[in-house]
Amino acid sequence: MTQLIKINSDARLDSHVMRNICVLGSTGSIGVNTLNVVRQYPNLFSIKTLTAHSQINLLAEQCAEFHPELVVVGSAAAAQELEKLLLNKRIKTQVLYGPAALVTAATLPSINTVMAAIVGAAGLLPTIEAAKAGKRILLANKEALVMSGDIFMKAIATSGAELLPIDSEHNAIYQCLPDANTSNGGARGAYSQFGVKEVLLTASGGPFRTIALSDLSHVTSDQACAHPNWVMGRKISVDSATMMNKGLELIEAHYLFGLAAKHIQVLIHPQSVVHSMVRYVDGSVIAQLGQPDMKTPIAYGLAWPRRIDAGVKELDFMSLKGLSFEEVDAGRFPCLGLAYDALVAGGLMPTALNAANEVAVQAFLEGQLKFTDIANLVEKTLNRSQLAQLGRADSLELVLQADLESRQIAQLILKDF
Ligand code: NAD
Ligand code: MG
Fold first, then answer.
1. Using alpha carbons only, how large is the chain's radius of gyration in Å?
2. Which residue minimizes the CA distance to atom 41 of ligand 1?
3. Which of 26, 30, 137 most suits a substitution to test ligand 1, by most atoms within 8 Å of the C-beta?
4. pLDDT at position 11, please?
5. Is 358 helix (H, G, I), strand (E, B) or coil?
6. Best of 51, 104, 236 to mutate for ligand 1, by most ligand atoms within 8 A of CB?
7. At 289, phi and psi to the nearest 5?
8. For 31-73, how does the pLDDT look when each residue is reduced to its tens digit (9 = 90+)?
9. How far is the CA of 192 from the centre of ligand 2 (A)?
10. What ranges do the domains of the chain cover?
11. Residue 110, SS3 per DSSP
């Protein structure tokens, strides 16, 4: 009853706020899905800025459809090419390029919502600046939070920004937490006070869950990117195959929900129907279920605290062949253990882990590293990262230094593989 009164008295449910949106990484898998949801609700959502690294033709098409004020690309050459395309289409969108322009795109006063969907460390600065500027952050770019967790969460708390997780597991967990349907302003940590005992992060196990261990060292990047349930960008697909993705998500869950590593459990759930769960002290376990379609968490974040039709096929229980759960095979997925150890070590270790993994995945995708050496390269890098071992993550400068140090060490070690 109390809950009901609280919901009904939430002004935001009655008079919706127009979401004026920046999509960081609009040409990627999450970016395109975001625009697929936005397109359905011109009265709720308006695109103000878009950013993309190099897919200029797609970005030009997005400009023709959504008429943003500003778009940002990765280089001067890409900006020139885009300007030509926009001139041909008589579109008056301003074009900028480079990292500082990404921050501009994410912090314009006309924006109140930022979809953080750049892949990797490149998304950190615009996302954290948007957090400082008090925007609603829809966080897909988990690497940004893994790199700078405490600083990021402090920026959110200080500015009063709303932080809504888009990663399907964290979105699911958020939906299962007590304040998901109120206007508390998104994930804020410290949920143990609400009787939360632990969160259960589900993982599909990726494309190599059952392949013979002896075959793992020969798998190709295309095999690694062929995820059984989700269609995603190539970096996160490789992370899913090594389960570093679940390791990054473990760290992400720690910061978002204020839970120690021992209160976050990873479970293999090959069907990807249960997106994650929360176990309470009274014995209840609350789960969020749905299709493996990112439009659901994206629509949730865009419309929160309302619900809108995400254009996702309904989950048909009669056609489910059963839901199963397994323990993670630590020998098959060493990256998960590395991430767990980095979280327990704390400080700049998660930053170094993320940077080493980005180098390793890129090298694997370019054919310079065997799949099984991704974990080896990350482990060797962490053992040699001095800042990560000594440093405290108490400033953004330190975070960026640790990121750089780890990348340099990983590049050096890579030569020996
Ligand atoms: P993607 O590779 O499909 O797209 C990445 C986007 O980032 C593109 O628009 C690209 O132009 C941009 N980009 C890449 N490098 C850049 C750089 N150096 N500077 C500026 N922009 C750059 O990736 P994705 O699958 O959409 O994933 C995006 C983020 O969302 C990742 O952090 C990923 O972990 C997270 N995420 C994705 C999914 C998914 O289903 N795809 C699910 C959960 C979380
Ligand atoms: Mg996920």
1. 21
2. 232
3. 30
4. 40
5. helix
6. 236
7. -120, 155
8. 999 999 999 999 999 999 999 999 999 999 999 999 999 999 9
9. 22
10. 19-166
11. coil
